[in-house]
Design the sequence.
């Protein structure tokens, strides 16, 4: 048996379907011509699953110094430091990287020992985020330390030290929690305006004794993104923690597109990095410098001409 709608209802149904299709193409984009290209025109916009927005770029002519990204086997790396890139955020001026540097000190009961103090040196346009990272130190009666360099008056480099103390007397006193609360694992905020640092872990005599050494011969210190590390009490007695975490832990870097202030940068003409018409300059809080954002009501890439769209 056939079924049909009156002519008036057919017209209403056709209008409704047309509106739905128009809404769908508006929300999700009807083609590449409507999409916003975040990379420099003609340049790759991805390495593996990592988006590479300008001023970062991979390939000749695709980046602004020192934001060269190398792509190897679908993994992205900051060319200036060699660390692996996990994510680049234009809006917040952040780049998440993988920090493989884990400092250690082991004192074995047979009399042998080993020490590794490691760190990271960044170019002048990157700083270690002082709000998104923490110093983590694992061990018993150990002092974990960050020794970093910051720029003082007249651009003199000054040492900055931050530390935390991890204490426990025997295996039963180690915290049975994923947090670093001080018994077997401690944590400390990261200081600001740091472009290079070393981490180290040191036993504190006479608190560190033969009893502690017998069940906790090694200690470890590293910088990691907040909440990226979960403590396990077995780490206190581990002698292979570094080999277990060979790639280390995520680390958040703040970056600036220039070391001038906004009041200075806006007078630089063609050297001013905020190239889009509907963009604005942002002074950063973690050290000197500025970055760019699209103005309110606009989205896209403020570092490209025509990059911010309503």
Sequence:
């Amino acid at each position: 048996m056939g079924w049909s709608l009156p002519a008036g209802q057919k017209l209403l149904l056709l209008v409704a379907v047309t509106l739905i299709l128009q809404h769908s193409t508006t929300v999700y984009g009807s083609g590449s011509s409507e999409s916003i290209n975040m990379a420099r025109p003609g340049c790759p916009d991805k390495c593996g699953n990592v988006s590479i927005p300008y001023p970062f770029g991979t390939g000749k002519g695709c980046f602004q110094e020192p934001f060269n990204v190398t792509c190897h086997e679908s993994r992205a790396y900051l060319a200036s430091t060699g660390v692996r890139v996990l994510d680049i955020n234009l809006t917040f001026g952040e780049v998440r990287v993988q920090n493989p540097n884990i400092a250690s000190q082991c004192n074995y009961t047979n009399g042998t020992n080993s020490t590794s103090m490691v760190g990271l040196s960044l170019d002048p346009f990157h700083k270690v985020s002082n709000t998104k990272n923490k110093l983590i130190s694992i061990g018993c009666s150990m002092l974990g330390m960050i020794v970093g360099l910051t720029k003082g008056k007249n651009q003199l480099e000054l040492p900055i030290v931050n530390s935390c103390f991890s204490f426990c007397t025997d295996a039963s006193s180690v915290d049975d929690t994923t947090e670093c609360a001080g018994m077997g694992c401690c944590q400390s905020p990261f200081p600001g305006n740091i472009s290079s640092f070393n981490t180290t872990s040191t036993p504190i005599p006479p608190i560190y004794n033969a009893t502690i050494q017998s069940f906790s011969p090694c200690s470890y210190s590293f910088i990691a993104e907040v909440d990226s590390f979960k403590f396990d009490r077995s780490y206190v007695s581990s002698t292979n923690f570094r080999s277990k975490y060979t790639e280390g832990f995520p680390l958040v870097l703040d970056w600036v597109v220039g070391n001038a202030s906004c009041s200075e940068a806006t007078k630089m003409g063609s050297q001013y990095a905020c190239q889009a018409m509907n963009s604005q300059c942002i002074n950063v809080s973690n050290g000197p410098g500025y970055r760019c954002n699209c103005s309110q009501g606009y989205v896209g890439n403020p570092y490209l001409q025509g990059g911010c769209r309503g």
Remarks:
- Residues 129 and 253 are 5 Å apart (CA to CA).
- Helices lie at 7-28, 210-215, 241-244, 262-265.
- Confidence is low (pLDDT under 50) at residues 13-34.
